[in-house]
Design goal:
Strand content: under 5%
Shape: elongated
Order of helices and strands: HHHHHHHHHHH
Number of helices: 11
Helix content: over 70%
Radius of gyration: 21 Å
Oligomer: single chain
Structural class: mainly alpha
C-alpha cells in the first residue's frame, strides 16, 4: 500500500521491518525483493538494490527465489552497462535451480550477456549447456550458439547448426527464417554469394527487410 502512494521512504521502512521481524520466510523474501525494486526503479539506486538482492540470496531457503533474485540482479547490471557482472549473476541464477524454467531462462540470459561482454568462449559453453537441457530451450540455444560461432569467425561451425534448425519441422516460422538468414550470412562470408542469395530468396521475409 505504501508503494502505491509513492511514499518510498515509508515503504522501505515497512519492508525492512517485515524482513527483520517476520517469522515467515515467504514474507521476508518478498519484502527484500520489493525493497530492492523500489531502490532500483523509483530511487535509481542500483547499488543498494543489489545489496538488498544479495541479502535475499543469502537468507532465502527457496532455490527458485534465489534464482529470481539473481535474474533481477542480472537485469539491473545489464541496464547499468555491466554485462560481465550480469553474466555472472545470471549464471549463478541457473546454478541455484538448474532444473527449473527460471533456471533455464537465467542460463539463456547468461549466454547472451557473455556475448554482449565479448566473452564468446563462455557464451559458447553456456549455449551448449542450454542445448543439452532440451525442452523448449533447444532452438533458442542452437541459434545463439550459431550466432556466437559467426562472431568468432567460425562460420563453418555455424552453418550446419543453422541448417539443422531449418530442417526441423517443429520450429516456428520466425525461428526458421532467422536460421535461413544465418545460413545466408555464413555462405556469404565463405564466398558462396549465389548460394547466399538463393537462401535469401527461399526465406519468407517481411516486405520491409
Amino acid at each position: 500500500a505504501e508503494f502505491g502512494r509513492g511514499d518510498h521512504v515509508q515503504a522501505l521502512a515497512h519492508y525492512d521491518a517485515i524482513a527483520q521481524r517476520t517469522l515467515s520466510t515467504v514474507h521476508r523474501d518478498l519484502s527484500l525483493e520489493r525493497a530492492a525494486m523500489i531502490y532500483a526503479s523509483e530511487l535509481r539506486d542500483v547499488d543498494t538494490a543489489i545489496t538488498r538482492l544479495n541479502r535475499l540470496i543469502e537468507v532465502t531457503e527457496s532455490p527458485i527465489a534465489r534464482t529470481q533474485a539473481f535474474l533481477s540482479m542480472g537485469r539491473l547490471l545489464l541496464e547499468s552497462g555491466s554485462e560481465d557482472r550480469a553474466a555472472v549473476a545470471f549464471n549463478k541464477g541457473y546454478l541455484s535451480a538448474p532444473e527449473s524454467k527460471d533456471g533455464r531462462k537465467s542460463l539463456s540470459l547468461a549466454a547472451r550477456a557473455y556475448m554482449e561482454a565479448s566473452q564468446l568462449t563462455e557464451a559458447v559453453d553456456a549455449w551448449k549447456l542450454l542445448m543439452s537441457l532440451g525442452q523448449d530451450s533447444v532452438y533458442q540455444a542452437q541459434l545463439g550458439l550459431a550466432e556466437t560461432h559467426v562472431a568468432l569467425g567460425n562460420v563453418e561451425l555455424a552453418l550446419p547448426i543453422y541448417r539443422a534448425v531449418t530442417k526441423n519441422k517443429a520450429v516456428s516460422e520466425d525461428v526458421a527464417v532467422t536460421a535461413q538468414l544465418g545460413i545466408a550470412t555464413c555462405l556469404d562470408r565463405m564466398g558462396n554469394f549465389d548460394e547466399a542469395v538463393a537462401e535469401l530468396d527461399e526465406a519468407d521475409l517481411p516486405g520491409d527487410v
